[in-house]
């Protein structure tokens, strides 16, 4: 289903992604992070949907549809290293930074820091070209305040 999209994304020099493709690719990263611990919880799905709705101004139905497509893409996508490097080359830095914020929201959705999710976020941040400092600031911006 997404073979042509993935083929374009992992070319040696991918072109900047159209908005709809960038949304899909970046949402697939949210799904990949949520699935990292082997438990894709309903609460994580709800958070992904809420993030998608708010980030892209979508209706509930549109957000569900985008997430469902992102779940399929995440299953079909190559390893995280190639996938994120391709996104780095095709998506502007500001958009990548806001994705890190969204990823932290998913990682912190259950109120606990998970070692697998932390490791995945460190790797994804690095592969997306987002510095550790910017990633930490992104986490602080989305962390619930006591």
TrEMBL record:
The record's CDD domains line, in alphabetical order, gives: terB_like_2
This protein is called Co-chaperone DjlA N-terminal domain-containing protein
- Annotated signal peptide: none
Domain Co-chaperone DjlA N-terminal, chain residue ranges per copy: 23-140
């Amino acid at each position: 289903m997404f073979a042509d999209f993935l083929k374009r994304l992992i070319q040696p020099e991918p072109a900047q992604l159209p908005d709809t493709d960038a949304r899909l690719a970046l949402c697939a990263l949210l799904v990949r992070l949520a699935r990292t611990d082997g438990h894709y919880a309903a609460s994580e799905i709800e958070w992904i949907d809420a993030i998608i709705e708010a980030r892209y101004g979508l209706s509930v139905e549109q957000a569900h549809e985008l997430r469902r497509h992102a779940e399929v893409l995440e299953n079909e996508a190559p390893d995280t290293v190639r996938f994120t490097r391709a996104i780095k080359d095709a998506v502007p830095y500001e958009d990548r930074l806001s994705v890190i914020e969204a990823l932290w929201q998913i990682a912190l959705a259950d109120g606990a820091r998970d070692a697998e999710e932390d490791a995945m976020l460190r790797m994804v941040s690095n592969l997306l070209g987002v510095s550790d400092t910017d990633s930490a600031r992104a986490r602080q911006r989305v962390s619930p305040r006591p």
